[in-house]
Amino acid sequence: MMTFLAEAGAQNPLIPEIPELIVGLLCFFIVFGILGKKLLPNIQKTLDERQDAIEGGLERAAEAQAEATQTLEQYKAQLAEARHEAARLRQEATEQGATIIEEMRAEGQRQREEIVAAGHAQIETDRKATAAALRQDVGKLATELAGKLVGESLEDHARQSRTVDRFLDDLEDSASKAEATR
Q: What residue numbers bound the domain in which 153 lies?
């Protein structure tokens, strides 16, 4: 064997011989053809599926983002509406409170006026009753005193009433004149 190598002479190891080159190229194309027919479509199919999955995921994410944005806007609108409603209810309650206070004040004023009027009426009734009782008592005392002064009995009731009434009317006139001068 060695002799064969020595006979061949100096060969360049980088340049293959023609038959080896043909067999190598033929094997390369056979392997490349088998890979291209069997393996490459499966790889392409897997890549396409992965690309569809990624694009679909992005689309779903975009749709979910749009839906989330829409839901957020709805929540914001509902919150604004709820705040507006709360402000309206607060204003309405304030107005009702003011109305109730005003009604209570008016009712209190009316009751006060009724109580004052009833008090005045009671005072007037008591004054008239007291004046009548006082007239009677003053009339008796005046009649007795006048009877003692005159020395006669002034038991005549009509005369007694006229004398007492005249005396009391004079007293009332002098009292009203005294008030008018003040």
A: 17-181
